Amino acid sequence: MNDTITTTELIALVIRGGKKILCAALVCAVLLGAVQASVEIRGKDSELATKEEEEYYQELRRLEKTVAREEERLAERQEYLDNSLYMKLNPYDIYTTTISLAVADLDYEAVHQAYLEDVPVEYLTNKIVNYYLTLWNAADLPSVLGLPAYEAVAEKYVRELVSVTAAGDGGLTILAVGADAAQSEALASAAQDLLHAKQAAVAAGSYDHAFSLLGNTTKGIIDYGMATAQQERYDDLDLIKENIIDAKLKMRELSAPDSGAVAVIKLVIAGAFIGAVAACLWICLQGILGGKVLSSHQVERTFQLPILGSAERSTGLFVRGANAVAGERMWRDQTQALDYIGQRAKVLCAGKKILLTSTLPCAADCAAVQALTAAVGEEHVRFVADFLHDPDAVQSMAECEEVLLLEAVGRTKLSAVSAVVDAARRCGCPVSGFVLI
Q1: CB atoms within 10 A of CB 277
Q2: How far is 263 from 276, CA to CA, in rounded Å?
């Protein structure tokens, strides 16, 4: 006897037990939810819960501040990269113009009148240089340099391109950079003109003097320092973006402490899932070990018996779903089903004396029994309600020519069908087929 069970039959078995699964899920959900609710009621004001909540909000505020701070830094860095002329220069192809000036021709007569003792020349020239540096730093370069190309540029970006520094011993150095020689020379010359324009103001606060031009050089260079500085600024921008992404990711991953209601709901859902899975496993285990008929195909496959039809009332969503999955040949109208069964029985058992029997308690007024009796003819039919428990069943079988079984999915045992088939073989009265009831 080949009594293997297919995956489809197991799935249909689980669907057929849908009501049991729902009941098990509901019971487990209620039990676990009640347990969690009682725990929450007892410990809702516990110190641990309060501490967890405080830690959560502290971490959330910290991450929000981090995001806000980094986004502000990002905006500042991006604004700088978008507007800085210095960042747009190619460090491997730039031009620099260097103008070196020295304070000269001091009015020593005025110096001697101011000081009783001799004063070092370096002290006086450095003092004058510091005045120039003060005025340079206070100047609004875009407006005073007189270069139209820079009038609309923010001063901080102009100062990246041109600078004036003290060279020591009364010297001043003007350094300008540009994309070509004309740009750097124009900036350096404008800075030199500005210093000359401030000469009268500086002399009024110190002593009359003049400038001596020590050098004026323009050359194309590769500025590795500029390349490093530019790369560091772009790296800093990337780092800020990564910090923002990391902080936002941590905010999404940050789990708020469950409130009592949320915890209960989660456990109710978990309980329903556990109950449903446990019920499914139990139904499958019963189907595998219980040895019951799971589908008409299993009987056909196991005993090589044809099915005449199904008179089962396919009531309920789960039963209809199970029959659809198992591929049972069902009729929407039972009257049509019974007519079909009767026609097949008439063809299969024409003129023969047949035994209608079942391994289940089956009443003589069963719709299938009535239809088969009417189709074959009452004089050709003998009915035995419960073959295995009827002492005269074997005798009745021996007096018949063929046997038709009336069995039910989920209730009939394969071993019982096997016993009837064996008895029929011994009596020389073959089982011609079966009907689902």
Answers
A1: 14
A2: 20
